[in-house]
């Protein structure tokens, strides 16, 4: 069971990476509770691919490193995608990475979305910006989106930020359930190869 984590944090350490790690740990725990399931977790830091993503837009082709990351995302059984919130929406790097992916490549893929920001007032960006992005990509987005404001990490208490751990657990349970019940991936059918002689024979007029 392949679980891929995409995080768009720009600093190191990053609160987006911290949230992504907590979500991944919670999902992996639930997958391990399913008999016969062994999760394989892969983390992709988009800041390390920023130049590669930009070059892809200029050349029209991904280099080997970006291609490998794209393949990991599109072949995942489940995806966790976390972005910092800037100006009330996802980061430009986050959007650019998912713009590179074909808009049918994530069809049916279970996705858990998360975001971080300085204030809880930006939490609705998950619903008006991030969720529609993955709906457009035809992914299956978990009902619970997880937003972490600065006060979540500092132990403060607020009407909108209490219970980060509970929200992580609920979202992780939803994603693990979607992954466990996902229909098997269908491999594309290969076109039959018709020998050239047969193609020529088909073009000859009837005798």
Automatic annotation (TrEMBL):
Keywords: Flavoprotein, FMN, Oxidoreductase. One of its GO terms (molecular function) is oxidoreductase activity. Transmembrane segments: none annotated. It comes from the Bacteria. The keyword Zinc does not apply. Residues 1-153 form the NADPH-dependent FMN reductase-like domain. InterPro entries: CE1759_FMN_reduct, Flavoprotein-like_sf, FMN_Rdtase-like_dom, NAD(P)H-dep_FMN_reductase. NCBIfam families: LLM_duo_CE1759 (TIGR04037). PANTHER family: FMN REDUCTASE (NADPH). This is Oxidoreductase. It comes from Nonomuraea aridisoli.
């Amino acid at each position: 069971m392949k679980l891929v984590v995409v995080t768009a944090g720009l600093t190191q350490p990053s609160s987006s990476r911290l949230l992504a790690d907590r979500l991944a740990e919670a999902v992996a725990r639930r997958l391990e509770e399913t008999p016969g399931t062994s999760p394989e977790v892969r983390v992709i830091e988009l800041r390390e691919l920023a130049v590669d993503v930009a070059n892809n837009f200029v050349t029209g082709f991904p280099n080997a490193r970006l291609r490998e990351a794209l393949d990991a995302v599109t072949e995942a059984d489940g995806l966790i995608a976390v972005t910092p919130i800037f100006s009330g929406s996802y980061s430009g790097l986050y959007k650019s990475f998912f713009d590179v992916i074909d808009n049918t490549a994530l069809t049916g893929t279970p996705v858990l979305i998360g975001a971080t920001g300085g204030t809880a007032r930006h939490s609705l960006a998950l619903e008006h910006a991030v969720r529609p992005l993955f709906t457009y990509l035809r992914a299956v987005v978990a009902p619970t989106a997880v937003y972490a404001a600065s006060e979540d990490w500092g132990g403060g208490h607020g009407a909108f930020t209490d219970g980060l751990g509970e929200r992580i657990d609920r979202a992780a349970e939803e994603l693990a359930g979607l992954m466990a019940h996902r229909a098997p991936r269908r491999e594309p059918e290969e076109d039959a190869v018709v020998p050239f002689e047969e193609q020529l024979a088909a073009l000859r007029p009837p005798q």
